[in-house]
Design goal:
Distance between the termini: 46 Å
Helix content: 10-25%
Number of strands: 9
Largest sheet: 6 strands, mixed
Bound molecules: 1-O-pyrophosphono-5-O-phosphono-alpha-D-ribofuranose
Radius of gyration: 17 Å
Order of helices and strands: EHEHEHEEHEEEE
Structural class: alpha/beta
Length: about 180
């Protein structure tokens, strides 16, 4: 039986300019996977994806990691634009499993102000993991308001509003296979 593959390219329109093409992203994710596999050789990882933006990146990344691993998810949200700058974040979905004594790898799609990650790190360190590292697909260091640095990052970008590969605008565009700058 012949299975016909349907290739669904995300619709790129005039409002979007490609910043990183899917091939470039795939290549970088392979490199990150290889580096993480080397760094955690002989260990077991506990990978935590931060919903929802990190889902696409995580699914590609874990398939390029060659050490045993478990996957869990957390969902967090700021109370709103006004409180985001105050660093107040609340947990919408917590982990299903204990991370005590485990080597944690937090997977994010983007680190912007760093407030979400700061909350996550403070929260997770209280659960006594053996170690905790951060991998992000995109890093916008120019926007940082807290002193936090990802251990692994795919691309360092300037302060553009980006969508695609998990990143959204009003929940749209997450499925785009490229990372695009949104012209608003
Ligand atoms: C985005 C992103 C990070 C956070 C980064 O999540 O996925 O979690 O913002 O921003 P910060 O460094 O300024 O805290 P968002 O709240 O947009 O939710 P989403 O992942 O569901 O899109």
């Amino acid at each position: 039986m012949v299975i016909q593959k349907e290739r669904r390219e995300g619709a790129i329109d005039n409002n979007q300019k490609i910043l990183f093409e899917r091939g470039e992203i795939e290549k970088r994710i392979k490199e990150l996977g290889a580096q993480i596999s080397r760094d955690y050789s002989g260990k077991e990882l506990f990978v935590i994806g931060i919903l929802k933006g990190a889902v696409i990146f995580l699914s590609d990344l874990v398939r390029n990691i060659e050490v045993p691993l478990k996957i869990d998810f957390m969902a967090v949200s700021s109370y709103g634009a006004s409180t985001k700058s105050s660093g107040i974040v609340r947990t919408l979905k917590d982990l299903d499993q204990s991370v005590e004594g485990r080597d944690i790898l937090i997977v994010e799609d983007i680190v912007d102000t760093g407030l979400t990650l700061k909350f996550l790190c403070d929260n997770l360190w209280q659960r006594h993991p053996k170690s905790l590292k951060i991998v992000t697909l995109l890093d916008k260091p120019d926007r940082r308001v807290v002193d936090i640095k990802p251990d692994y990052s795919g691309f360092v970008i300037p302060d553009h509003f980006v969508v695609g590969f998990g990143l959204d605008h009003n929940e749209y565009y997450r499925h785009l296979p490229h990372i695009c700058i949104l012209n608003e």
